[in-house]
Amino acid sequence: MKLKNILILFATILVCLSCQKKEPVRGLIAQKAMVVSARIEASNIGKQILEQGGNAFDAMMATDLALAVAYPYAGNLGGGGFMVYRLNDGSVGALDYREKAPFAATKDMYLDSIGNVIPNLSTRGAMAVGVPGTVAGVFEAHRKFGSLPIETIMKPVIALARKGVIVTKNQELRLAQKQPDFKLANKDSILFSKNWKENDTIKYPNIAETLTRIMENGRDEFYKGQSAKILAKFIQNNGGIITEKDLANYEAKWRTPITFNYDNLRIISMSPPSSGGIAMAQILKSVEDYNLHEFGHNSVKTIQVLAEAERRAYADRSYYLGDPDFVNVPQDKLLSDNYLKNRMASFSFKKATPSTEVSHGTVDIIESDETTHYSIIDQFGNAISVTTTLNSGYGSKLYCEELGFFLNNEMDDFSSKPGVPNVYGLIGAEANAILPKKRMLSSMTPTIVEKDGKLLMSVGTPGGSTIITSVLQTILNVHEFEMSMQEAVEAPRFHHQWLPDEIRMEPNRFNKETINSLKQKGYIINEERSLVIGIVDGILVLPDGTLEGGADSRGDDASAGF
Ligand code: GLY
Fold this sequence. Notes:
Layout: H1 3-19, E1 29-30, E2 34-37, H2 40-51, H3 56-70, E3 80-86, E4 92-97, H4 134-145, H5 150-163, E5 165-166, H6 169-185, E6 201-202, H7 205-217, H8 220-223, H9 226-237, H10 244-249, E7 253-255, E8 258-262, E9 265-269, H11 276-287, H12 292-295, H13 300-320, H14 331-334, H15 337-344, E10 372-377, E11 383-389, E12 399-400, E13 405-406, E14 447-451, E15 454-460, H16 466-479, H17 485-490, E16 494-495, E17 503-505, H18 512-520, E18 525-526, E19 537-541, E20 547-551, E21 558-561
Parallel strand pairs: 17-18
Antiparallel strand pairs: 1-20, 2-10, 2-21, 3-4, 3-11, 4-7, 5-6, 8-9, 9-14, 10-11, 12-13, 14-15, 15-19, 16-17, 19-20
Bound molecules: glycine.
């Protein structure tokens, strides 16, 4: 072969090699069914229930309760959550088991005599607690769709609580950090007052007892039985206002999820009282006409167009949204093409739109960063997506030793005083003001995605106000930027929420030139506010029908499947 031909051949091989698409880095692959959650113990228990022939709703009860044992930071009996489902026949729905304000709650309950917000009252201790919804939620999902006996589902969870759970490094650090709050919130020392270290085993005999009574007596044990009596008395002894009547009246509620199209995807997400579905729909519909694929992942243009759509959606978010049982949410208007087109009309790639020009009043978000998410797809093709929370990490920090669980501080998700910033420097609105029996606004965004009419993904995350933008970036990572599920959950994330007027970015994970270019266009970049944005978990259905788990390494999250 002549030298020239050899050179051509060599160049051709080089070109071909560089053209070859990089093999995606994939998470756990399973043939039939999968659970992805914040702890391997919970994922394994969910998987075990599926292997025994249970469906996604049986596994939901097992995984949710196992997280209450293995991940007390956010998993809970003393909190609430949302579930979105898609059955194997394509029908969809949503379950709201969000906490509620007690009967004795009042609009001004967190204000002093001259109308100022009393520090910590809505965040720490018994006054911060909303009426818990988790037990009602998992029982309601099981009542409607479950197939295995409650005992089969709950026994492994109770066994886990008795055997104990190994402390991870993350857990050691979180427990150490929260010690001062545990002391302030509780009259006595609690199980977690001890200096727990990585690899210690914490046993949970008291929650095991509570779960055993619930297994034997059903959901009413928690709301009307011995547990309800203990709980109401405990909260009141600690200065709270929740009564046995509040517990007896709690009901989970079936809701119609938010559904919308983006290209050939159909996205199914949580409706009010979560803002997640509406805000995500507004953002994705606002950017649908831009060629994000061509702009590139986390490029200046992609970040700009998403940040501008986020700015506008978050400005709408808290102003209009609240519990639909109490306020009229103008959902159709907020999601209409014309409305969204008008909202984006002021956007230009040349420079940032100042948030003052987008605002129309006193609106914003009031959630904290700690929550947890799990996704399940069963061997029958049913999918669920569940996000559940105590609000802050370990909730109100008030721990009911006798029952063995923390109580939420979800009351802080209401606007304590509409128009005045809360502890996160954020402002609330009238639609989310406190009323007895009302549910507080949330950002939780459990989501299921279809592609061309078929199940594609179940996804969600913790992260307070950043939940919405983390979930939508993960969907775009798979759909626009062709990432695997694992790559999509691991990719660096950014977030804009209208106020404060800044793009929050995960530190040291974005290209410096990109950041400089955004700054030149007038964007304020904040790489200090959040070490991580979201801890996303998801399951992707691959073209051959197998399942890929995406378990975010920002947490201790893990997939389990078969
Ligand atoms: N407490 C966090 C949320 O509901 O969004």
